[in-house]
User: Fold this.
Amino acid sequence: MEQPLLDVQQLTKHYPLRAGALHRLLPQRQTPVLRAVDGVSFTMAPGETLGLVGESGCGKTTTGRLILRAIEPTSGSIVFGGQDITALHGPALQPFRRQVQIVFQDPYSSLNPRLTVRQSIGEPMLVHGLASRDEVRHQVNAVLEMVGLSPEYAERYPHEMSGGQRQRVGIARALGVQPQLIVADEAVSALDVSVRAQILNLFVELRQRLGLAYLFISHDLGMVRFISHRVAVMYLGQLVEVGPAAALFASPLHPYAQALLAAIPRIGDGSVSMFDHTERLLAGELPSPIDVPTGCRFYDRCPYRMDRCRQAAPALRAVDAERAVACYLHT
Amino acid sequence: MTETLLEVRNLRVAFHNEDGMLRAVDGVSFGVARGEIVGLVGESGAGKTLTAEAIMRLIRCPPGRISGEVLYRGRDLLALDEAELADIRGKDIAMIFQNPISSLNPVFRVGAQLLEAMTLHLPARRRTLRDRVREIFTHVGIPSAERRAQDYPHQFSGGMCQRAMIGMGIACTPSLLIADEPTTALDVTIQAQILALIRQLAAELGMAVLLVSHDLGIISQMCSRVLVMYAGQIVEEAPMATIFHAPAHPYTRGLMACIPDIEQVPARLGTIAGVMPGLRDLPSGCRFHPRCPIAEPHCAVAEPALRALDVTHRVACHLARRE
Assistant:
C-alpha cells in the first residue's frame, strides 16, 4: 500500500473545565473534563476526500483544527507525508503549514475586510516564499482564474462581493500556497443551494486538476455523499463508523449512522412522509461530552443496546478491507 | 372544495430608504386551506420570511409598508386595528421562528412564559392553566414536564426550546401555524423529531401549517402543496408531486438539480448561474431572466404573470407549457 498522506492515531483533545469555588475548596475532587475528541484514528490517501460527518458538538471541527495544528492535542499523533508533526513547533512547522490549508465556513468573517482580494491571496504566498513581490501579481491572477473569478476581482474588497464569490476567494487563498490537503470545515454550509452547488463543483474540479485531498467536514449528508470517497461518522468525540461513501450510505452498520441517514429529509414527490413513521426516528439528544459514560457513548439512544455495551466501549474495528465500525453488533 | 382559511391577495412589502423604495415582497397571492400543510420555499433574500411576517403584521411600519389583502376567514388582517389583531395573533394564528433559543425570554422560566401566552387568550383560572402547561409540555415531548416548566431557557437544548415554542404556539389551539425555518438551527436527528411533532400536531388539531424553508427535502416530506419564491415573487405553485415530477419554472428545475441526493450521485451537480439579484438592482422583465438557461429576448422586457397551467399548477414564466 502506498504511504498515506495523513495518518492520525488516537488523537485526543480534552478541555479541563475551570472548576467552581466549591471545587477549589475540595481539592481531592477531579476537575471535570470535556472530551471534545477522544481517541480518533484514521488515514487519508493522497488525493482522497474524506467526509467527516456528525451533529454539532460531536468534535468534527476540533478534529479539523487538531490536524491543522491550530490547537494542541492532549495526546495522540499526526503523521503527515511520513513525518510525525505532532511534536513540531515554530519554524519546524512551516513546511507543514503550507501543505495543509483550511477553508472556513463563513465567507464573511474569514476574509480581512481591510485587505483587497490580491492582498489576502498574495500574503501567504510571500510568507511561504513561493513568489517574489514581482511574481505575486501574476500568481494571484492565475489562482483566481482557477477558482472561476476574473483577475479584475483582485482589486476588490470583500464587502463588494457576494457570499459565493468570497468563498471562491477563500479557496483561492488556500490554493495559492499549493497545499496537498485542504480542511474544508462546513465550507459551503453558509451558502444558498444554487451557489453551494457551484462551489461543490469547483471543489471537484480542483481535486481532479491538482490532485488535492480534502477533509470535508459537514453536517449535510447529501453534500458529503456527493463529494467524498470515504466517510467517517463521528459521535460524541469518537468515530463510530468509517467506510467508502457509497457502501456506508447504502448500508450503514452503526446504529447511529443508520439513524443519522434515516433522518435526512430527501426530496420526494410528497406521496409518503418519513415523518409519519416516528418510531423509526432517533429519540433523545446528543449527551454532554462532559462526564461521558464508560460504555458505548450511544448506549442511551441505541435501539439495539445490550448489557455488554454499558460495560465497555466497543473499539473501532475493521469488518472488511474497507469498512470499520465501533459496535458489538458487528465486531 | 375545502374551506379556505387564509387567503393572501397581492401582498406587497416595501421599504423606504434614502435609495428610494425597495420592493421586498411584490404581489404575492396564495391560499391555505383548513388543515393543509403548505410549503413556502426559496433561497435567502427571496422574501419568504417577510411574507410570513407580513401575514402576522410583524413588520415595523414605517420604514416598511404592507399592502394588499390578508384574509383570515374572510377578515382582512391588514385592515384590523391593533386590539383586534392582538386577539387573533397567538390565538388563531401562531408563529414559530428559526432561532428557538432567542425566541424565549432568558430571564423568565419557560413554564411561566407559556402560562403568560395562555392567560392572554384563555379565560380560565391560573390553576387550571398550570395543569394545561404541564399537559402541553408532555404533548410536545418535553420529559418530566413538571420540573422542566421551572427551568430557564438556557437550561434547555435547542430542540427542547423549539418544543417549548411549539407548545406556546399550539397552547390556544390555533387553526394556522406559521413555521419560519423551524429546524434550521437544529441538528438533523433533532430536526426530524421536531418536524414529526409539527406534522403530528397538525393532524391531531386539524391545524393548517405554512412552512417556510429553504430546504426542498423538508418541504417535500412535510407539504402537500408548494409555493416557490424568487426575488420577492411566487414563481411557481403546485402540488409537491408536480414540483417533483414536472416542475415548470426554470428556477424550480434548477433548484431541484442543485441538491445532491444520497442515492443517485452525479459527477457534477446542476447549477444555476449567477446569484439572486439584490432588491436595489432587480432586472427588468422576468426577474429570473439573467440566470435563466432558456430565456428569450422577450423575457427581458415583459414581466410574466403567475398563470394557471392547470387547476392546481400555476407558474410565472412566458415559456412554460403544459406537459
Chain A has a mean pLDDT of 90. The longest strand of chain A covers residues 33-44.
